[in-house]
Design goal:
The complex is a heterodimer of chains A (about 300) and B (about 210). By secondary structure, chain A is an all-alpha fold. Chain A contains eleven helices and one strand; from the N terminus they run E-H-H-H-H-H-H-H-H-H-H-H. Chain A has a single domain, classed as Formate dehydrogenase/DMSO reductase domain (Formate dehydrogenase/DMSO reductase fold, Up-down Bundle), CATH 1.20.1630. The longest helix of chain A has 29 residues. The two termini of chain A are about 15 Å apart. Chain B has one domain: Alpha-Beta Plaits. Chain B is about 25% helix and about 20% strand. In chain B, the strands form four sheets. A four-stranded mixed β-sheet of chain B has the order 8-1-10-9. The longest helix of chain B is centred in the first third of the chain and has 10 residues. Classes of the chains: A mainly alpha (about 300), B alpha+beta (about 210). Chains A and B meet through strand 1, helix 3, helix 4 and helix 8 of A and strand 2, strand 3, helix 3, helix 4 and strand 6 of B.
Chain lengths: ~300, ~210
């Protein structure tokens, strides 16, 4: 109604570093899930992915908090303040503990796996599942508990984050297993069974992920004015390229078609393309989600 | 501790609050400048500012103002989400940031519905309006209140029924910002214009024309 003559507006409190942090934790949680499929749940065909999965999960989770520390203005202070002055109502407080417990558990799980101790591998693998869910789910909670932003403040946020984590983790494992089998084994032969299994899993998880995004946006379009505006901003506004094209078309729909059609799936070149596209799409999703919640002024 | 007992204990303490009478506000931005000078607020940042909007078409135009500051909520989101207890609420209701505890994670900035927090560019810690607690503790008024030429900003103890703020809140029709967030803000406005509360529209919805 009125034309704004003067106003102060602060924006973009959480920047790209947070997006990369979310992305790396997601990849880590996803690859950990893959590694527990055989030892924890008894899917023997995924056994060849287990060792690689746990190593990648640990490495990524050692790298991820570095991005978090780059975002924080006082990184050294935050390293111990987060443990000493913890606040039980803050999601970040729990995150600090999860970011320590989850890699520790993964390392113990990995050690038992490399020593071929099936019993303890299963125990720590199953123990790691809730930790992996928590370590990535809490990143969704961080955003969802920012109650000021209608775009973030939804119960779907942790679930959307979990599914995109699993999806990107599987894509990364497909790529890594193919590279390992093709170049770093004696046979130079790609293990078709495991790649096929992972691709099918990827397809169904992508279906769920797309459904969740559809739920989120269809409800946002009917919500309060701020939510409607964000939804329009994402679907038709400046963010449309990042959200519609990169995240959903390139990142989810095209890979889903490739991995769901057996003829296309059996073509390794297309499968590699699908996995790369999906990884790019999920990175776009992290950036779009973190940035999108903050672009519109609140007051 | 039961709620009744808590309230009784708090009643002995003052509950600081502010009433902004917009019938008196002339939009001179003096409160902004007084705040900046008093609290050494860095360039480009504001603890309190006056949002100014223009309604109507020339020559029939009217300007409306909304002085903005931290609402010193009873149930502040920033305190809930702070991971290191740096954001806290004093017993007398002033919401403050402990600079020794704050690590600059900016989580409270993104959670605050009123967008009144900023990161100090030199110190890297969070900064916000604290009702000039150093002046209030010394028995003075906050800088913005003292500087206001038309006495549009009124500060005082809401627990004391004889204070001017308490009387105004009791007698006049007052409004607060974004009460639906459940934050229970303690900065009240008299004669707040709906147009100054509208968010800046950046996107046109598909079903709007």
């Amino acid at each position: 109604m009125g034309k704004i003559v003067y106003d102060v507006h602060y924006q973009t409190t959480l920047a790209f570093m947070i997006s990369y942090y979310f992305y790396l934790t997601g990849l880590s949680a996803g690859s950990f899930m893959i590694s527990t499929l055989s030892y924890g749940f008894g899917f023997e065909k995924f056994k060849a992915a287990s060792k690689m999965g746990v190593v990648v999960a640990v490495l990524l989770l050692l790298a991820a908090p570095q991005f978090l520390l780059m975002q924080v203005a006082w990184p050294v202070k935050s390293l111990w303040h987060n443990f000493v002055y913890l606040n039980p109502t803050s999601a970040i407080s729990y995150g600090a503990f999860l970011l320590v417990l989850y890699p520790l558990n993964s390392i113990i799980y990995g050690i038992f796996m490399f020593r071929d101790n099936k019993k303890w591998t299963k125990f720590f693998g199953l123990l790691g599942i809730p930790l992996a869910l928590a370590v990535h789910g809490y990143t969704g909670w961080i955003l969802a508990l920012g109650i000021a932003r209608d775009y973030w403040n939804t119960g779907l946020m942790p679930i959307v984050f979990l599914f995109s984590a699993m999806v990107s983790g599987i894509s990364m494992m497909i790529l890594l297993i193919m590279i390992r089998d093709r170049y770093f084994t004696k046979e130079k032969q790609i293990n078709r069974e495991i790649i096929d299994g992972l691709a099918k899993l990827l397809g169904w998880l992508l279906v769920v992920d797309l459904f969740l995004v559809f739920c989120d946006y269809s409800i946002l379009l009917y919500s309060r004015l701020e939510g409607q505006e964000v939804a329009h901003f994402m679907l038709f506004g400046k963010m449309a390229f990042g959200f519609v094209v990169v995240e959903n078309l390139i990142g989810k729909i095209i890979p889903m078609i490739i991995v769901m059609v057996p003829k296309l799936r059996n073509n390794y070149y297309l499968l590699v393309l699908a996995a790369i596209m999906n990884m790019i799409g999920i990175l776009a999703m992290r950036i779009v989600t973190v940035y999108g919640g903050q672009v519109l002024p609140l007051m | 501790m039961s709620t009744a007992k808590k309230e009784k204990q708090n009643d002995k303490l003052p509950r600081w609050g502010m009433v902004i009478d917009l019938d008196r506000c002339i939009g001179c931005h003096t409160c902004e400048i007084a705040c900046k000078v008093q609290n050494d607020v860095p360039l480009g940042m504001w603890r309190s500012w006056v949002k100014e909007i223009e309604k109507g078409r020339y020559p029939n135009v009217v300007r409306s103002f909304r002085p903005t500051l931290c609402n010193h909520c009873e149930n502040p989101v920033c305190v809930k989400v702070c991971p290191v207890h740096a954001s806290y609420r004093r017993e007398d209701g002033i919401v403050m940031v402990d600079p020794h505890l704050c690590v600059g994670c900016r989580y409270c900035m993104s959670a605050c519905p009123y967008e009144v927090r900023y990161i100090h560019p030199q110190k890297g810690i969070l900064d916000k309006c604290d009702f000039c607690h150093h002046r209030v503790d010394a028995g003075l008024q906050p800088a913005c209140v003292e500087a206001c030429p038309t006495s549009a900003r009124i500060f005082g103890d809401l627990h004391d029924p004889h204070s001017e703020v308490a009387r105004l809140v009791a007698k006049k029709p007052v409004q607060a910002l974004k009460v639906d967030m459940g934050t229970d803000p303690h900065v009240y406005y008299i004669g707040l214009d709906q147009a100054t509360m509208e968010i800046k529209r950046e996107v046109k919805l598909v079903w709007e024309k």
